[in-house]
C-alpha cells in the first residue's frame, strides 16, 4: 500500500477511463467546490481536502489489477490516517512499553488475537491473561501464563476515540547470538484524532493503571547481560511479592526513620529546586551478608510504590559506559540500586597484584590460572561511578541505594554527603533479633495450631497447654531460643535457614538450636581451614612467580628493593585481606546504626 500518489499511466481501454472519469471525477469536483466554500477560513482543512480529492482522481486512474473502487478506498484510508491521526511508538525496555502493554491487556484488545505464547508461571513479568479469559470452561489456574502476541493490527475504541495497535516482534540480529542481542519489540498506537492531549491522557491512564495493578508486587529491573543496541534496555524484569516493613527485623525505629526520610525526599522536590540542590538522595547499607540489606530496600520500594533498577558491580560486563547508560535510562521517582559497590574498588590483594604487575614479566603471569585470586573486581572505575552518581540523570528524584559487605574498601570520595547522605550499618543477629525472628515464624495468634510436642524440656507443665496460654508459651520459647543463639555470630539469614528446618515445631527449634550452633561452628572451622590452605598455596605460588620475574639487576635478597618490598607488603596484608563472608565480624552490639549526613541541615 502506498502513502504517496503514484504517477499517472494512461490506460489502454478508453471506455473504462471514461467510465471512471464520469463515475468519480465529477462527484469529486462537486465535493471539492462544496468543501472549498465551507472551509475557506480553515486553510489546513482545505488543503487536506484538496489533497484527498486530487489524490483520489490520480489513484482511480492508475493501471492496477485491483478494482479502482477498492484502491480508492485503500488510498483514502491511508490519506486519512496520515492526515487525521497521531501515532505513538513504544519501545520494549522502556517503562512506557510496560504501561501500554498492560493497558492493552486491560482493554481486552487480546480478544481479537488468536495467537498466544504460553509460559510456565514464573517471576518474570508478563502481561498475561488468565486461562479462564480465553475459555470460560478452562479451570487451570496459576501454572501457565497466556501472553497474546498481537501480531495482526487491532482496532478498538477507547474514550470515544478509535485506536489502532500494531506490534513488531523482537528479533535476533544474529550479530552475537551468544548474548541474545536483539532488536526489541515495538508497539505503535495510532489514535484517530489530531488532539495531542488525547495521547497524553491515554499514556497517563495507562501509567496509573499499571501502578495500581503493580502494587502487590515490587517490580525489579535488572540488566543481566551485555548489550550492543544504541538504546539501553533493562533486559530482565521481575516481580517480587511485596514485603511488609514489619517483616524486616531491625533495631526499633530504624526502618521507620528510613521510610520517613525517603518519603520526605520524594515530597520535597520543589524545596531542592528552589535552593539549587540536586534532587537526589543516596543511601549506603553496609554489613555482613544475610543481615537484611536487600530485604530492607525491597520492603521500602513496596511501601513507597517505587520500582527498583538494580545492577550488581560484581557482574563482569558492567563497565563505565554500561553504568552510565543504565543510570540515564532510569525513570524519575525510582530506586537505583547498586549492589556490591565495593567491587568498583580493589581489595588489598588486588592492590598487591596491580603493583606487582609493574615488575617486568610479572603481568604475564598475573592472570595465570594457577594463581588463586577469586577476583570480584568490576570494570567500573571510581571516576565512572562518581560521574554516574553526580550525573544529570541522577538529579531527577532518584533514590540511590548502594550495598556492600566491605565498607572499608570504599573510597572516601564516594561517601561524602551529596553522594551518600545516609549510612545504615547492619550486623550479625542480636538476641532481640533472634527472638523477633522466632516470633515471626511462630506467630502468637496462630500458636494453638502449631505442633507443640509435650516433652520433658517443655518450659511449663501440662496446664500451660490450654488455648489461653499458647501465646505466652511462644513468647517464652522465643526468649529461650534467643538465649541459646550466641551474640553476633550468625546472620539473620542463617537463623532463618535453621528455623525453616522446623517450620511447625517451635519446641523442636528451641531444643535443636544448641546442636545446630555447634555443627555450624565445626563446619565454619573446617571451611576456614580449607580456605586458609588454599590462600597459602596461592600466596606461595604468587611469591615464587614474583621472585622469578625480577630482573637480574634486582636480586630479591638485596634489602630495600622492589621485590622484597612487595613481599613484605603482601605478607602484611594477607592476614587482613580476603576475609571470607563467614569470618566477617562486627564489633557492634546493635543490629543497625544509622549515620546521616544531611545536606539540608
Ligand atoms: N534483618 C532481617 N529481617 C528479616 N529478614 C532478614 C533480615 N536479615 C536477613 N533476613 C532474611 O535473610 C535473607 C537474606 O537477606 P538479604 O538478602 O536482605 O541480606 P543482605 O544483607 O542483603 O545479604 P547480601 O549482603 O548477601 O546481599 C532474606 O530471605 C531475608 O528474609
UniProtKB/TrEMBL annotation:
<dbReference type="InterPro" id="IPR003593">
    <property type="entry name" value="AAA+_ATPase"/>
</dbReference>
<dbReference type="Pfam" id="PF25426">
    <property type="entry name" value="AAA_lid_BCS1"/>
</dbReference>
<keyword id="KW-0472">Membrane</keyword>
<dbReference type="GO" id="GO:0005743">
    <property type="term" value="C:mitochondrial inner membrane"/>
</dbReference>
<dbReference type="Pfam" id="PF00004">
    <property type="entry name" value="AAA"/>
</dbReference>
<dbReference type="InterPro" id="IPR014851">
    <property type="entry name" value="BCS1_N"/>
</dbReference>
<dbReference type="InterPro" id="IPR003959">
    <property type="entry name" value="ATPase_AAA_core"/>
</dbReference>
<keyword id="KW-1133">Transmembrane helix</keyword>
<feature type="domain" description="BCS1 N-terminal">
    <location>
        <begin position="52"/>
        <end position="248"/>
    </location>
</feature>
<feature type="compositionally biased region" description="Basic and acidic residues">
    <location>
        <begin position="521"/>
        <end position="537"/>
    </location>
</feature>
<dbReference type="Pfam" id="PF08740">
    <property type="entry name" value="BCS1_N"/>
</dbReference>
<protein>
    <submittedName>
        <fullName>P-loop containing nucleoside triphosphate hydrolase protein</fullName>
    </submittedName>
</protein>
<comment type="similarity">
    <text>Belongs to the AAA ATPase family. BCS1 subfamily.</text>
</comment>
<keyword id="KW-0496">Mitochondrion</keyword>
<feature type="region of interest" description="Disordered">
    <location>
        <begin position="521"/>
        <end position="601"/>
    </location>
</feature>
<feature type="compositionally biased region" description="Polar residues">
    <location>
        <begin position="583"/>
        <end position="601"/>
    </location>
</feature>
<keyword id="KW-0378">Hydrolase</keyword>
<dbReference type="GO" id="GO:0016887">
    <property type="term" value="F:ATP hydrolysis activity"/>
</dbReference>
<dbReference type="InterPro" id="IPR057495">
    <property type="entry name" value="AAA_lid_BCS1"/>
</dbReference>
<feature type="domain" description="AAA+ ATPase">
    <location>
        <begin position="279"/>
        <end position="430"/>
    </location>
</feature>
<dbReference type="GO" id="GO:0005524">
    <property type="term" value="F:ATP binding"/>
</dbReference>
<dbReference type="InterPro" id="IPR050747">
    <property type="entry name" value="Mitochondrial_chaperone_BCS1"/>
</dbReference>
<keyword id="KW-0812">Transmembrane</keyword>
<keyword id="KW-0547">Nucleotide-binding</keyword>
<dbReference type="InterPro" id="IPR027417">
    <property type="entry name" value="P-loop_NTPase"/>
</dbReference>
<keyword id="KW-0067">ATP-binding</keyword>
<keyword id="KW-0999">Mitochondrion inner membrane</keyword>
Amino acid at each position: 500500500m502506498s502513502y504517496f500518489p503514484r504517477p499517472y499511466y494512461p490506460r489502454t481501454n478508453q471506455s473504462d477511463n471514461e467510465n471512471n472519469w464520469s463515475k468519480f471525477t465529477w462527484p469529486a469536483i462537486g465535493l471539492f467546490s462544496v468543501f472549498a466554500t465551507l472551509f475557506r477560513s480553515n486553510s489546513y482543512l482545505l488543503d487536506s481536502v484538496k489533497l484527498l480529492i486530487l489524490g483520489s482522481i490520480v489513484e482511480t486512474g492508475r493501471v492496477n489489477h485491483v478494482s479502482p473502487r477498492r484502491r480508492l478506498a485503500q488510498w483514502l484510508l491511508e490519506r486519512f490516517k496520515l492526515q487525521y491521526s497521531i501515532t505513538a511508538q513504544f519501545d520494549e525496555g522502556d517503562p512506557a512499553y510496560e504501561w501500554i502493554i498492560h493497558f492493552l491487556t486491560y482493554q481486552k484488545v487480546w480478544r481479537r488475537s488468536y495467537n498466544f505464547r504460553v509460559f510456565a508461571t514464573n517471576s518474570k513479568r508478563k502481561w498475561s491473561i488468565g486461562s479462564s479469559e480465553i475459555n470460560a470452561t478452562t479451570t487451570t489456574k496459576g501454572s501457565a501464563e497466556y501472553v497474546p502476541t498481537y501480531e495482526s493490527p487491532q482496532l478498538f475504541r477507547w474514550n470515544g476515540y478509535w485506536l489502532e495497535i500494531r506490534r513488531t516482534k523482537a528479533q535476533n540480529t544474529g550479530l552475537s547470538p551468544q548474548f541474545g542481542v536483539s532488536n526489541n519489540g515495538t508497539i505503535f498506537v495510532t489514535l484517530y484524532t489530531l488532539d495531542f492531549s488525547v495521547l497524553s491522557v491515554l499514556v497517563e491512564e495507562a501509567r496509573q493503571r499499571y501502578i495500581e495493578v503493580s502494587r502487590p508486587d515490587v517490580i525489579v529491573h535488572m540488566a543481566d547481560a551485555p548489550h550492543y543496541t544504541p538504546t539501553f534496555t533493562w533486559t530482565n524484569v521481575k516481580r517480587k511479592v511485596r514485603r511488609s516493613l514489619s517483616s524486616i527485623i531491625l533495631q526499633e525505629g530504624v526502618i521507620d526513620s528510613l521510610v520517613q526520610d525517603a518519603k520526605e525526599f520524594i515530597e520535597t522536590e520543589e524545596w531542592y529546586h528552589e535552593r539549587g540542590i540536586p534532587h537526589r538522595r543516596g543511601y549506603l547499607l553496609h554489613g555482613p551478608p544475610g543481615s537484611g540489606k536487600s530485604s530492607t530496600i525491597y520492603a521500602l520500594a513496596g511501601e513507597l510504590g517505587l520500582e527498583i533498577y538494580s545492577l550488581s558491580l560484581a557482574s563482569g560486563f558492567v563497565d563505565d559506559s554500561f553504568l552510565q547508560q543504565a543510570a540515564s535510562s532510569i525513570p524519575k521517582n525510582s530506586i537505583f540500586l547498586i549492589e556490591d559497590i565495593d567491587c568498583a574498588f580493589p581489595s588489598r590483594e588486588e592492590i598487591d597484584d596491580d603493583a606487582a604487575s609493574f615488575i617486568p614479566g610479572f603481568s604475564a603471569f598475573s592472570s595465570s590460572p594457577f594463581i588463586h585470586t577469586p577476583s570480584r573486581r568490576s570494570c567500573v572505575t571510581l571516576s565512572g561511578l562518581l560521574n554516574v552518581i553526580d550525573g544529570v540523570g541522577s538529579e531527577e528524584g532518584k533514590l540511590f541505594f548502594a550495598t556492600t559487605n566491605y565498607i572499608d574498601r570504599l573510597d572516601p570520595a564516594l561517601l561524602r554527603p551529596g553522594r551518600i547522605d545516609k549510612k545504615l550499618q547492619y550486623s550479625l543477629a542480636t538476641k532481640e533479633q533472634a527472638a523477633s525472628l522466632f516470633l515471626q515464624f511462630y506467630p502468637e495468634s496462630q500458636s494453638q495450631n502449631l505442633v507443640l510436642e509435650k516433652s520433658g524440656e517443655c518450659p511449663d507443665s501440662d496446664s500451660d497447654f490450654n488455648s489461653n496460654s499458647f501465646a505466652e508459651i511462644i513468647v517464652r520459647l522465643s526468649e529461650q531460643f534467643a538465649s541459646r543463639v550466641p551474640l553476633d555470630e550468625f546472620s539473620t539469614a542463617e537463623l532463618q535457614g535453621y528455623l525453616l528446618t522446623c517450620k511447625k515445631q517451635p519446641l523442636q527449634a528451641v531444643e535443636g538450636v544448641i546442636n545446630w550452633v555447634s555443627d555450624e561452628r565445626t563446619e565454619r572451622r573446617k571451611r576456614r581451614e580449607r580456605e586458609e590452605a588454599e590462600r597459602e598455596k596461592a600466596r606461595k605460588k604468587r611469591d615464587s612467580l614474583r621472585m622469578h620475574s625480577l630482573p637480574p639487576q634486582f636480586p630479591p635478597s638485596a634489602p630495600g628493593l622492589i621485590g622484597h618490598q612487595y613481599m613484605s607488603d603482601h605478607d602484611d596484608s594477607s592476614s587482613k585481606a580476603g576475609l571470607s563472608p563467614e569470618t566477617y565480624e562486627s564489633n557492634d552490639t546493635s543490629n543497625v546504626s544509622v549515620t546521616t549526613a544531611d545536606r539540608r541541615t
